[in-house]
Amino acid sequence: MRFPETLRYTPSHEWIEVTGKKARVGITDFAQKELGDIVFVELPEAGRTVKAQQACCVVESVKTASDIYSPVDGTITAVNADLDKKPELINEDCYAKGWIFEIELTNPAQIDNLLTAKSYSESYAT
Amino acid sequence: MSYKTPLYDNHTAHEARMIDFHGWEMPVHYSGILDEHQTVRTKAGIFDLSHMGEIDVCGPESVDFLNYIICNNMNRLSYDGRIIYTGLLNENGGFIDDLLVYRKKPDSFMLVVNAANRENDLEWINRHASSFDVTVEDRSLSTGLIALQGPSSVDILKEAMGSSFKDLYYYHFTESKINRSPMTISRTGYTGEDGFEIYGGWDDIPHVWDAILEAGRHRGIKPIGLGARDTLRLEMRYPLHGSDISETVTPLEAGLSWIVDFSKDEFIGKKALVEQNANGVKRQLIAFVMADKGVPRAGYDILCGNETIGTVTSGTMSPSLLQGIGMGYVDPERLDRNNLFLKIYDKQKKIEFQKGPFIRPRIYAKK
């Protein structure tokens, strides 16, 4: 399994990639493997304001529905519409083509509280 | 206590994802549920079902005894080698279990029951057997079971066993041998595809598994886990005990009145069912397809207009239809088939009432 060093992670298996004041969010390689074949993503609405650790969308595999939590406070600015037709992008490429939503950070300092690749993979991805 | 089937090492060697299934360590998937599902629909799949229970009932009063404890009529088993689907009901008409009954001889039968209910079933069966001249023997832990399902099943079994079982029709079985070990070959399954269920000795079953996999290799056979078993059965609208039927649900409510024979003198649950039949059921199992996007899951509310009229008991994304499908109980008096919704994440999503199975069955029935 792969956990890029450039990303930050949550105990609930989301990754976040920060670029300036914006960030992209998705689920980790571990999470997509655990869920199995992903068949549907209920995307969040762009413009919605969310809090860290708030459930804001749902990823559905054949077996189960799984809430996705925002890693940070912010406003959702974009969603990955490709997932509507091809939810399997999350299985195929969870860190790039399988991103889920983009968020504008309210408080960029929150990123420092998130897990590094090393601590996530050691403590949660097992 | 955790049980392992004789194929446990085989599953872990194939890198199956294992789960605890009612005390059994079972494969939930190997290559992935979607891939396994499509493999069964287009080629063939092999399933380890050794966790299921096999209970023999024999003796001079076997027919009378079984007629008393099941709701179907044993006279449907009119000759050796026939199988019926039926229910083991409690006094309220609720399903203690659903099961298959195999007629081996006029006074010798095999009951095939769900792994999760085996101990309950046995306790119930033994309790009532004491007033009949029958013997009950649980052979579950010495009997292995493999299912071979899918359109290529016949060709694969022919290669593995040298017979294409041309005269073996759906819901019939025959005794045979694989590598000199006795086997029961049954034309049954839980997928809606043509196929076989093969019962054999605990230690013999791994050899059968290997032989079938070998014979099926160039036909694309794959091992299939419980995950795809669930999506396959759901597309056929087969109920699952513990989800769609239970001790508090009767065959009439579950749309299974065809397995109840009211003409029988007496059987456990008859009184309650006669009453329910006269008064009408208060809830009814329906099936539906998602018209809006979304995946139904057990526990979701079923709405008619804005009013909650029931609950989903099984749901998934149908790998064949690429649409959400499900089943659930509703109040028949408040059911308007053209105005149905599910409540999913607090949103109302439209569903369409489904008549019959979601996918046409392709079983090998006598013409």
Would you give an account of this structure?
The complex is a heterodimer of chains A (126) and B (367). With 126 residues, chain A is an alpha+beta fold. Chain A has a single domain (8-110), classed as RNA polymerase II/Efflux pump adaptor protein, barrel-sandwich hybrid domain (OB fold (Dihydrolipoamide Acetyltransferase, E2P), Beta Barrel), CATH 2.40.50. Chain A has helices spanning 29-35, 82-85, 89-92, 117-123, and strands at residues 8-9, 14-19, 22-27, 38-42, 49-50, 55-61, 65-69, 74-79, 101-105. Chain A has a six-stranded antiparallel beta sheet. In chain A, strand 6 and strand 7 form a beta hairpin. Chain A is globular. Chain A starts with 7 loop residues before the first strand and ends with a helix. The mean pLDDT of chain A is 96. Chain B has 367 residues and is of the alpha+beta class. Chain B has two domains: 1-279, Probable tRNA modification gtpase trme, domain 1 (Gyrase A, domain 2); 282-353, Aminomethyltransferase beta-barrel domains (Elongation Factor Tu (Ef-tu), domain 3, Beta Barrel), CATH 2.40.30.110. Helix content of chain B is 21%, strand content 34%. Chain B has eight helices and 20 strands. Chain B has helices at 8-13, 33-42, 62-69, 118-129, 153-161, 205-216, 226-235, 270-279; strands at 3-4, 17-21, 24-29, 45-48, 53-58, 83-89, 95-105, 108-113, 135-138, 143-149, 173-178, 181-186, 195-201, 222-224, 284-290, 301-304, 307-318, 323-330, 340-344, 347-354. A six-stranded mixed beta sheet of chain B has the order 11-12-13-10-4-14, sandwiched between helices. In chain B, helix 2 (33-42) packs across helix 7 (226-235). Chains A and B meet through strand 4 and strand 6 of A and helix 2 of B.
